[in-house]
Amino acid sequence: MASISVLHWHRFLGLAAAMTLAFAGAAGAQPSSGTPASGPAAMAPAMPGAAPIDRAKILSATGVFGDFSVYKLRGEYAMLPAADRKAAAAEVLAVIDRHKDKVTVDAYLTRGFDANSDYFLRVHAYDLAAAQGFLTDFRATRFGAYSEVTENLVGVTKGLNYISKDKAPALNTALFATTYTDPAPRYAIMIPVKKSAEWWNMPEQERMKAIVGHTETSLKYLVNVKRKLYHATGLSDADFITYFEVNDLEAFNNLSIALMEIPENKYQPRWGSPIVLGTIQTVESVVNTLSMTDRGM
User: Fold this and answer.
1) Spatial distance between the Cα atoms of 103 and 52, rounded to a whole number of angstroms
2) What is the pTM of this model?
3) Using CA atoms, how far apart are residues 190 and 271, in angstroms rounded to an integer?
4) Residue 175, CB half-sphere, CA atoms under 13 Å: how many?
5) Strand, helix or coil at 63?
């Protein structure tokens, strides 16, 4: 009888252990290696009633941080079941909603234009840590976990250093009088620029002369090209992040050629590397397109 009781006791312990493992697996199971885990389980719930950040205000203000992150989606993502890809896309939108009171997020589809990326994000925040918080949560989603970062640049918006009202009043007036008149832009281009040590050690008057030439060359193209400049010295491996929106890509090509031909270009060891071109879309559109949520595999 004693041996039978011991046997039953061991069977009971084995059953209890199996049940414990089953419950633990159901609560915290992780996919096999190579499969990114879902992020929302670890994320804090959204704050109810949080008002979105004022987009027009943050895009026009100085002292705002811009974080540009470029991504290549791993091929395995397309092999996930359609339901999983649809859920992964929904996770991204939920994360954006959670951070809407601290950041704005713009998305661009680059697939088909660039061998090293499928999309890029432009995140604006008054506090750079807020942009980091959003991007950390974004990478914790399944879509983000399957996305490899191929470039990341951070800059800050500032007032004009050279073509200001006090230093170049006539050119400043002409610059602000020239407005975009083309149809709504469909394309965005991000180009990092690094200046040489020789440039930074030039007398300010010489740099001013070069920037005047740059501005005068650019003026006639500004009816076709929207542009925004981010200062990145000390924040990224670039001195400037130049961002453009266009509908007429030929006009942008002509602007680029014109700027290659001016003296300032001799002091730019980095112009591009990479140049990232994408179509301007909503985050939802980019994520759903890359997730192929409208069809199964």
Assistant:
1) 8
2) 0.82
3) 11
4) 19
5) coil
Q: Is 227 a catalytic residue?
A: yes
Backbone torsions φ then ψ of 30, nearest 5 degrees: -115, 145
Strand partners, 104: 124
Domains along the chain?
53-154+285-291 (3.30.70.1030), 169-279 (3.30.70.3420)
Measured CA distances, 175 to 160, 165, 215, 223, 250 (Å): 11, 11, 8, 11, 21
Q: Which residue has the tokens 């030039």?
A: 202
pLDDT per residue, tens digit, the chain (297 aa), is 344 443 344 443 343 433 333 333 333 333 333 344 444 333 444 455 679 999 999 999 999 999 999 999 999 999 999 999 999 999 999 999 999 999 999 999 999 999 999 999 999 999 999 999 999 999 999 999 999 999 999 999 999 989 999 999 999 999 999 999 999 999 999 999 999 999 999 999 999 999 999 999 999 999 999 999 999 999 999 999 999 999 999 999 999 999 999 999 999 999 999 999 999 999 999 999 999 976 543
Q: Which one, of 194, 187, 281, lies nearest residue 243 by Cα?
A: 187
* Active-site residue (options: 74, 186, 227, 270): 227
d(CA 239, CA 191): 11
The answer to whether the peptide bond before residue 36 is cis (omega within 30 degrees of 0) is no
Q: Could you give the CA distance from residue 283 to residue 141 in angstroms, rounded to a whole number?
A: 14
C-alpha separations of 16 from 12, 167, 168 in Å: 6, 80, 81
Residue 8 neighbours by CB under 8 Å, 6+ apart: none
* Residue from 97, 129, 122, 160 nearest 278 by CA: 122
* Rounded Cα–Cα distance for residues 259 and 238 (Å): 18
Closest CA to 108 of 122, 94, 89: 122
Distance CA 274, CA 116 (A): 9
